[in-house]
Amino acid sequence: LLPGLSDTFNIDTKRPKIICGSKEAFFGYTVQQHDIGGKKWLVVGAPYETNGHQKTGDVYKCPLTSDSHSNCTKLNLGRVTLSNVSERKDNMRLGLSLATNPKDNSFLACSPLWSHECGSSYYTTGMCSRVNSNFRFSKTVAPALQRCQTYMDIIIVLDGSNSIYPWVEVQHFLINILKKFYIGPGQIQVGVVQYGEDVVHEFHLNDYRSVKDVVAAASHIEQRGGTETRTAYGIEFARSEAFQKGGRKGAKRVMIVITDGESHDSPDLEKVIEDSEKDNVTRYAVAVLGYYNRRGINPEAFLNEIKFIASDPDDKHFFNVTDEAALKDIVDALGERIFSLEGTNKNEISFGLEMSQTGFSSHVVEDGILLGAVGAYDWNGAVLKETSSGKVIPLRESYLQEFPEELKNHGAYLGYTVSSVISTKHERIYVAGAPRFNHTGKVILFSMHSNRNLTIHQALKGEQIGSYYGSEINSLDVNGDGVTDVLLVGAPMYFSEGRERGKVYVYTLQENHFIPSGALMDLQSYQNSRFGSCIASVPDLNQDSYNDLVVGAPLEDEHQGAIYIFLGFKETILKKYKQRIAATELGPGLMYFGCSIHGQLDLNEDGLIDLAVGSLGSAVLLWSRSVVQINTSIRFEPSKINIFTKDCKRNGKDATCMSAFICFTAVFLSAHFQTASVALRYNTTIDERRYTPRAHLDESGERQAQRGLVLPAGQEHCEKLHFHVLDTADYVKPVTFSIDYELEQPEHGPMLDDGWPTSLRVSVPFWNGCNEDEHCVPDLVLDARSDVPSAMEYCRRALRRSSPDCSAFSLSFDTSIFIIESSRRRVAVEATLENRGENAYSTVLNISFSRNLQFASLIPKDDTDINIECMTDDKHPNKKVCNISYPFFRAKAKVAFRLDFEFSKWIFLQSMEVYMIANSDSEEKESTMEDNFAHLNYHLKYEADLLFTRTSSLDYYEIRSNSSLERYDSIGPPFHCIFKLQNLGFFPVEGVTIKLTIPVATRAGNRLLLLTDFLVDQENTTCNIWGNTTDYRRTPAEEDLSRTPHLNHSNSDIVSIDCNVKLAPNEEMNLHLHGNLWMKSLKALKFKSLKLTTNAALQRRFGSAFVFREEDPSRQITFEISKPEESHIPIWIILGSTLGGLLLLALLVLALWKLGFFKSGSRRRVEEQEQNSMGLE
After folding, report:
1. What does the domain layout of the chain look like in residue ranges?
2. Residues 590 and 620: beta-carbon distance below 8 Å
3. Where, in residue numbers, are the FG-GAP repeats (predicted)?
4. E strands along 511-583, which residues?
5. Domain 780-941 has what CATH class?
6. Can you give the C-alpha Rg of the chain in angstroms?
7. Which residue of 268, 416, 584, 1146 lies most exposed, with the fewest beta carbons within 10 A?
């Protein structure tokens, strides 16, 4: 089966649904799929959406209907107002984070920059809105929201009796002190009561919610008068009634009592003050001494009463002024004393969450919601938890283990993203990222306890400064066993190859700890992509039962964006992405595609998980396609091709007919598609890799056929094809059937599983003609011999010697040798190969030979029909592989053949080796394999083809001792002898010595020759000269040589010269011998004729590779020297002989004249002249 080559995945990019919104509002920054009673919606965050004049941000609900123009509706969550809080909603970024709770189909939309007013400050604590399954606001989630330190209910108790004068000064004081208060929801409420003889409400605590309204109401308060000052009654009225009407639970209760005289019900003060203490009412008392001063009355008793009314200590709660006009002087001091109560509520959390930006990230867990608060604790950040039973806000100290105090000014931004994992103990472990920790980023895994402490189990650290490691986190349970398998940490600003490409780190769970396991691979291109800005774990997309992963890279392709889909496998995630979906594939104008991703629901009712992807100003829905696997099989009837029995005729020729059954089964991976079907087209090809097929389809007579069919899910469908096989030379390799198939409509409907085979190759073998078990057992026998003669054969045939001599010749070598005659250039090997067993398939003869041989030919003999083909391998020139009767060597077959080898001109060896072995693909028995090879290994001697000649400038010399013509005295005539060796053979000659022996003196010491020079005209020839060449008698001694007229190396003193012979083919060498006869001795010696013989002999050195056809090859140069005896002839004999000779000549001339000898010549000339003259005429 061949795997498919497609890199596509089953997310459809041809028909996306693009929901457009406002780019200015950043519609699409976050997306969440939503299900209400089976109706599917898409929830889209638009954090810059406006509501009225404020840019609050908001969330849209978009119905997912078949209508492509369905409109989205704004939920107007930006208009939700918190009671009892002075909130500021402008730029609060509602929708910056969204979290869905699949249990009740509610979701959380957060506004991390939501702020509220506390006194003179605005605190950006953040706030989230919980929306129920029918898109109705349910509740506000704001765990970092604390009551303002100005959360007070203040009751001002005014003495309105007649003694207060002028009243306008009291009104001015009241207005000025009210202007000091931060009046509003969640801050200060003010109520005023006036007493004298009776007590009345001027206005209640909750009547007015702003400073402006309260001041306006206060300016209309008139003095009610009265003859009595019932201060105790006024205080009791304020405690028991004024604080109850509009008072807020948990608010700090403050009472300001202003009076100008002792009370008329002073006995009741002790009980009233005791009750006020029980109700935690803080009392400020102002004594106006105008009445006393105007009348000169001692105010001591009055002051003591006022001090008793004021809370302890008196120096903070008691004031006195000289008169009503002086009240304005204590406004600032009284305001400061009241506001000094801020932060003293023991039930509130200490300062640290005021700028927390809670909701920057959110994550739903079983028992509540995790909220990231990046600005908490001086921007080190924190993770808060909101549960049904309350909130959990970890203490600053609980983070110090991983976020030490010395790094607090770095702004770690813990809570930038929050998530969770399930440990092997099935415990929920929270995960939070701090992308700015120590500039490189950090991720912590922790548990949160109700006592506001943390247990940090593990910390993971980033590796690159500024990479924002930990700004995105997600976990994946790949195999769905309830335990997290993979933790993924994004570092979208990771700098690589000169670009801000981004990186996603992979950690796998091992023994309750996450171990680094590399990183995901994005597109290998050099661009600022911010890969890892969004990481979404999604249920099984490709229907292989493993959950998958989608990663966003919103800045890819010049900020158009892309997403990457990674497949889960077993307990990990495959790091090479399977599908990359770029915004450019989906539609024009998309920007920052991939900034948010969510995929948990089937949105189009086809049983498959679909993806929602956010971009700037739009949300994109991508549909999953069903995945199908096509199981294919082929079977043949009969199962093998019988070439020995032809059972049909095709095109008038005998053929073997066969049938092929091609079966397909469509298996849909999703249970939702078990009743579906898929259209398929397929191609059938026979012997596709051969130029000429060995089988043909009956239908068309061709090798190919194309068909189409529709496959119902889960049902096997088979089609029958008839084909036939004609005669072919190759019966060994089976005939291949190739099925290539593809979906009829690959762009629509189901798609073939990724990596699933789209081809099937099945072979139908030939029947091998062997036993029933179809197991062929051959018995190959190889025999070979060479035509190179042995030493004995060479001696008898070439040297023509007798048997005893040839035996001695053969034994003269240290081993058994074979002789290569000088005329031989080739070696022939006669061989036979026989199969005594069953058919031998793919029989091969492997031939290897020594380097001094070159393969020339292999020629079958006896007109056999068995074909032998030999292949040449340039890499192994000394090896040959020959196919014997391919495809099989029949049983009982025998073939004889001759191998010819030529001797190499360049490589000369003293041995020759030829090794042959025959084997086949059929399994031969071990016991019969000993005769499968032939090994010819000969030690060689070569017959030297040398032309050995000699020349001499002197052959004969006669000594005339008494002749005046003698030119030589002591040194005689010169001589120049040349011995020539020529290599006429094919092989280089070496290992041979030429030895010259020159007789230079008699045994008595009389010099015969004088050698003057010896030369060899071949370079690098080494010669050695032996013998005495100079130390002989100066005066010859008498010596009679008449009995030894022939002197040579055996009976005279000699000079011996040995030279090594080394001749390449067609090369020659000349040995030049120069010298003179020594006349002084030759004249003195007694002889008539003397022969001096110089001998040159060729000798084989030990181990030489050469032999000589000539038994003892030698050449001689002989100088013959004669010395005739002296004789005296009388003068008269000389004169008589002369005269007799002249007389005889005269008689002879006279006789010829008489016979007319001289006339006949002249007569003939005259006749010729006459004939010439006639011719001219």
Report:
1. 18-142+619-624, 152-340, 463-509+521-593, 627-760, 780-941, 946-1122
2. yes
3. 13-71, 80-140, 344-395, 455-516, 517-575, 579-639
4. 513-519, 534-538, 548-553, 562-566, 568-569, 572-573, 579-582
5. mainly beta
6. 64
7. 1146
> Tell me, what amino acid is at 526?
Y
The single-letter code of the amino acid at 969 is D
Distance (Å, whole) CA 507 – CA 433: 14
Residues 254 and 283: their CA atoms lie apart, in Å, by 6
List average pLDDT for each run of 10 residues in the chain, which is 1177 residues long. 48 92 95 89 95 92 75 90 84 93 90 89 90 90 84 92 87 90 88 93 91 91 89 93 90 92 90 92 92 87 91 90 84 81 44 87 93 92 90 90 79 94 92 94 94 93 95 95 95 90 94 92 82 95 93 94 94 93 93 96 90 96 92 92 83 89 92 88 92 89 90 91 84 88 88 88 85 80 93 87 87 85 90 90 92 91 82 87 85 91 90 94 89 92 91 89 55 92 91 93 88 89 82 79 89 92 92 91 87 93 87 91 71 82 86 74 59 50
The owner of tokens 């010696």 is 1085
| Topology agreement, domain 152-340 and domain 627-760 | no
pLDDT at residue number 79: 87
Neighbours of 450 (CB within 10 A): 10
One-letter-per-residue 3-state SS of 593-628: ECCEEECCCCCCCCCCCCEEEEECCEEEEECECCEE
Is domain 627-760 given the CATH code 3.90.110.10 in the classification?
A: no
Residue 297 carries which side chain, given as an amino acid letter?
A: I
Report the C-alpha gap between 980 and 1071 in whole angstroms: 6
Q: Give the number of other Cβ atoms within 10 Å of residue 583's Cβ.
A: 26
Q: Which residues contact 843 (CB under 8 A, 6 or more apart)?
A: 778, 780, 835, 883, 884, 885, 886, 888, 889, 918, 919, 920
- Residue 1173 three-state SS: helix
- Number of other CB atoms surrounding residue 1151 within 10 Å: 10
Token pair in block for residue 980: 């020539």
Q: Could you tell me how far CA 1030 lies from the centroid of its own chain?
A: 87
Token pair for 444: 């912590």
Query: Residue 379 phi/psi, 5° resolution?
Result: 70, 10
Of 852, 787, 851, 785, the residue nearest 819 (C-alpha):
787
The span from the CA of 377 to the CA of 452, in Å, is: 14
Distance of alpha carbon 804 from alpha carbon 877, whole angstroms: 43
Cα distance between residue 862 and residue 975, in whole Å: 65
Q: Tell me the three state secondary structure of residue 804.
A: helix
Judge if pTM exceeds 0.70: no
Half-sphere exposure of 539 (CA within 13 A, CB side): 11
The full length of the chain comes to 1177
Query: What are the φ and ψ backbone dihedral angles of 954, each rounded to 5 degrees?
Result: -135, 125
CATH topology of domain 946-1122: Immunoglobulin-like (2.60.40)
CA distances from 911 to 93, 125, 187, 820, 1064 (A): 97, 101, 117, 11, 19
Return the closest-CA partner of residue 145 out of 167, 128, 164: 128
Evaluated on CA atoms 691, 692, 694, 698, the torsion sign reads positive
Cβ atoms 1085, 1039 nearer than 8 A: yes
Structure tokens at 751: 């798609």
CA pair distance 354, 372, nearest whole angstrom: 14
Amino acid residing at 399: Y
Task: Give how far the C-alpha of residue 867 lies from the chain's centroid of Cα atoms, to the nearest Å.
Answer: 49
Calculate ∠ Cα 680-683-689, nearest 5°: 150
Closest to 895 measured CA to CA, from 921, 920, 859: 859
- Are the CB atoms for 970 and 1043 separated by under 8 Å? no
CA angle, 441 as apex, 436 and 442 as ends, to 5°? 125
Instruction: Please tell us whether the domain made up of 152-340 is placed in CATH 3.40.190.80.
Output: no
Whole-angstrom Cα distance, residue 848 to residue 826? 16
